Please model this.
Amino acid sequence: MTTSDQSSIESLFPTHYPEHVYNFAYGSNMCPKVLSGRRKIRPLESIPGVLEGWQLTFDLRGIPGVEPCFGNIKENPESEIHGILHKMTNTDFKYLLTTEGGSGVDANGYIPYRVNVHAYDGRTIEAYTLVVRQVSPSILTHHALPSARYVGLLRSGAAHHKIHPLYIEYLQSLPSIERNKPIMVLVIIEILLLVILLSPVWIPTIVYYMCTKQKAHARAYFFTLIMVNLWRIYRFFGSRTAIQPYYSASFPIGSTNFKENTKAFRADVQTDEQTLPDTIVDNSCESSPLITTTEQRKID
Model:
């Protein structure tokens, strides 16, 4: 890595953060069983908020056939995203980065991006959200849908934190695919074969990173190496004709009239929450919610 490359990466990942940091979560980290359960991060505060001028997408490369893609956001002046502002220590935030794609060191993975988020309680809070840049090679350039399991985490997390029902309805409209067990077994076999066949390539690099105490770099390198080659196999044998990038319809800015009256908006959310069971039957974060017709629910 050249000096210029190193300085560029360092500019994307700050070395110092305030004692307490707000992270704006729009994906699976909205779900407590992911953030607090799997990642063992217990926020000091969690409050819904709106990020204007950005659009939710699912264009971060994942595991083909299993978890094809993950959540990301991109700028769109006509869109807004509802999510959760998690207040945490800077230590927890740095750890959070290591658990995400890129491990907090790879410029082609998630990078912390500073944004201003309008909290449901009326505050405007400066927060860091995680973004994969559209110039990254990790961005999918061919068609892929997120798994129903992954999208279910977003829906369940949004319902748990009482995000506006209109946005939950938007999350329900997003297309997804069901996991296929035979394909999952095949992918596991492919991963094992890649690990064995590519061992002369990755073992020396991993040893170097471990010896120089760069565990995050080791994780990022190994994951990228396997995923890139998995997608090569997938495109060669399975999806030559699927060349269109995944498109996620945006949630139009102003759909909830958020800025007109924050207090009235919050009261409206609390009133509408009692209708959520008609739309989301299973509120568990470990499984996808059952979806019924949205006509069963009246939104003022």
Strands lie at 20-25, 45-63, 67-89, 111-119, 124-131. Residues 215-237 form the longest helix (23 residues). The chain has a mean pLDDT of 81. The chain is about 40% helix and 20% strand.
